[in-house]
Amino acid sequence: MRITGYFCLFWLSISACFATTLEDIRPHTPNSQSWSEQWFYYLNDPNVGYFKISVQTYLTPEITDQKERAYVHFVYAPIGGTKTTVDKYFDDVQLEGDPTTGKFRFFVPGKVNVNNQSISLALDDLNFKLDFIGEHKRYWQGKNPGKNPYGWIGDLPSVNTKYFIYTMGTESSYEFSMGGLNHKGEGITYLDKGWFDSNKSQGFVFIGAFTPEQQLMMTGGYSKDFPFELWVGRYFSEDQDVLLKPSMVGFSVKKESDACQGYFRIEIKKLGKKVIAEAQSNLSDFYITDMPSMKVFGAEKPIMKSMYATIKLKVYKWGKLVEEADFPQGLLEFSGDEMCSALEY
């Protein structure tokens, strides 16, 4: 028992040394010829729809000078409308980051300027500006609100998840123009961050819905080197604050996944609580992305993503239904073995 206790303390101390923190919002130095670092923003204006902004750096073995390149992915998904996607690649990207404070800058001259407080894009006829104007709502409370959602399990060598959620929801102002479209207003922004030197996921699913009153994120999957499928999640509302720590499919998790029908359902039971989430999207609302999964890491399958999923949520406490939530527009993603093999890519 004493030896086991010492081992646990030793592992937890080692894990703390390698855990992600909020300061990891900054850029990192590549440690491999295949590399991707990603900042994912989802902005929802409930009166307009969702905006997705992903800025990434990447390397592949074919890049002879091993100087990081930049990739920008923008999606506008208006309520009841048709999504518009913009993808841009740049050879010149300037990166700044302070490991002590986490202050950073992702800069493509004249095109892209992203830092801790704002986003500015000027891409052909697309112009977009976002500013954080509220307090960040963290996924974790405690001494390290920037650790990855899987906690110490994510630090295991076979998992090694360099990924965390910077904010579940931050009040933001924005301006957007593209072609004849113009919007200006306020919404709520979700931001997660990750950096990777290989494609370790065999398959995963992501569910998200973010409004000023409610924020929901659930994600899970299985890696090539870890024997269990794990799920985590967080839900905030005016009356509920639910944290779902790592849970295994087949034990405390039941799931139904049918990407070819655009359907996903999950039930997670923990001591004294149960959460059921059900997401549905038309197959025509999904789009395929292969960056960086296939283009950088050589994965066999891409990711299919919808920003038009309807999501229903039920929260139980000690067997009693305490809250139901309906999101008419949300996010649903399938990757790897979870995606629909019938789709062309």
Rg to the nearest angstrom? 20 Å
Distance between the termini: 53 Å
**Total helical segments:** 1
Arrangement of strands in the largest sheet: 4-3-2-1-11-10-9-8-7-6-5
- Find the structural class using helix and strand composition: mainly beta
Tally of DSSP β-strands: 21
Helix/strand order: HEEEEEEEEEEEEEEEEEEEEE
Strand percent estimate: over 45%
Mass-distribution shape: globular
Largest sheet: 11 strands, antiparallel
Mean pLDDT: 93
Low-confidence stretches: 1-14
Residue share in helices? under 10%
Explain what you see.
With about 350 residues, the chain is mainly β. The chain contains 1 helix and 21 strands. The protein has one helix spanning about 1-20; strands at about 35-45, 50-60, 70-80, 85-90, 95, 105-110, 110-115, 120-125, 125-130, 165-180, 180-195, 200-210, 215-225, 230-235, 240-250, 255-260, 265-270, 275-280, 285-290, 305-315, 320-335. It has an 11-stranded antiparallel beta sheet, with no helix packed on it. Strands 12, 13, 14, 15, 16, 17, 18, 19, 20 and 21 form a 10-stranded antiparallel beta sheet that branches. It is globular, with a radius of gyration of 20 Å.
